[in-house]
Amino acid sequence: MAQSKPTIALRPYLPADAPALTALFEASVAELAAEDYSEAQLAAWIATLDVDELAERLADQLALVATVGGEIAGFASLEGNRTIDMLYVHPEMARQGVATALIDALEKLAAARGATALEVEASDTAEPFFRYRGYSPERRNTKVLGDEWLGNTTMKKTL
Description:
159 residues; Aminopeptidase; globular; 5 helices; transferase
């Protein structure tokens, strides 16, 4: 028997979402990226954002929240009109179409606003997802977070 995909709804980010999105960010990094990064790297990544920092960051961006059955399942943000800044999905909703719905919407919104291409600094965990969606690797990066070094890949897609 085939399992059906959940119905995903998208809405704009609201400041009241910040606590729930911070918890989702932490869970997403801790669980979904665990195969690609060490525990110390994950802890350093998680420490980069608290509720206030996330709220401030998303307030300056085009941010969307995905819900399933009224529960927050993921979020994504577009910085300026060219850069996907954040994409996080709750671990229980991974591989259910949440990230696809969020990125589909951001790509359409960016194109409607005149963007001809989008860039993303994709984590090692997210890189296959973006590659599948037509993003091409441009360069490998190393970020210093606290005492840890984390790798990611700058990827670009022509819209």
